[in-house]
Amino acid sequence: GNSVTQMEGPVTLSEEAFLTINCTYTATGYPSLFWYVQYPGEGLQLLLKATKADDKGSNKGFEATYRKETTSFHLEKGSVQVSDSAVYFCALKGSGGSNYKLTFGKGTLLTVNP
Amino acid sequence: NAGVTQTPKFRILKIGQSMTLQCAQDMNHNYMYWYRQDPGMGLKLIYYSVGAGITDKGEVPNGYNVSRSTTEDFPLRLELAAPSQTSVYFCASKGAIEGEKLFFGSGTQLSVL
Question: In this structure, what are the phi and psi dihedrals at residue A79, rounded to the nearest 5 degrees?
Answer without folding.
Answer: -150, 100
